[in-house]
Specification:
The protein is an alpha/beta fold and about 140 residues long. The chain has a domain of about 60 residues. Helix content is about 35%, strand content about 15%. The protein has three helices and seven strands; from the N terminus they run αββββαβαββ. Helix 3 links the parallel strand 5 and strand 6. The chain is elongated and about 70 Å long.
């Protein structure tokens, strides 16, 4: 036994919290800067229409994105329209059960969306959906 309390199991009573708070604030700043970047796919901004529907799980989806300016992307790769069908056919051949999710800007015409749907159908897709923003339904709380 040591007199003076310097044994191995003694409690540190003056822990410095400043370095811990500094690290936490740096992490918050990093998340605030990177979070908006994760929302855009393939560097294209798409303003989705609003709908009160159930949200599809996105982990296994194949995403076709069409911006208001006519830019097209398959998953995160930009490509011209003629290249979409062969690329989509390759993906559907490997993963026929995956959902084809069409993310089109709200300014895109129905004709353009129907063209994307027919390309997906010709490529062998069995399941398709159109992405929308969730809106709150009357009488329900958001959250």
């Amino acid at each position: 036994m040591h007199a003076g309390g310097s044994s191995r199991g003694s409690i540190i009573s003056n822990m410095q919290l400043a370095p811990l708070v500094d690290v936490a604030l740096v992490l918050v700043i990093i998340f605030m800067v990177t979070a908006p970047m994760l929302n855009e796919q393939a560097g294209m901004t798409v303003d989705l229409p609003k709908a009160a529907t159930i949200e599809a799980r996105s982990e296994d989806n194949v995403t076709i994105t069409l911006s208001a300016s006519g830019e097209l992307a398959l998953n995160d790769e930009k490509m011209p329209l003629p290249r979409l069908e062969p690329e989509l056919r390759k993906i559907v051949a490997k993963h026929s059960d995956r959902l084809i999710l069409i993310r089109a800007d709200k300014e895109v015409t129905h004709k353009q969306i129907l063209e994307l749907m027919s390309i997906a159908k010709r490529s062998g897709a069995k399941r398709m959906a159109i992405a929308t923003l969730q809106r709150t339904r009357p009488g329900r709380r958001a959250g």
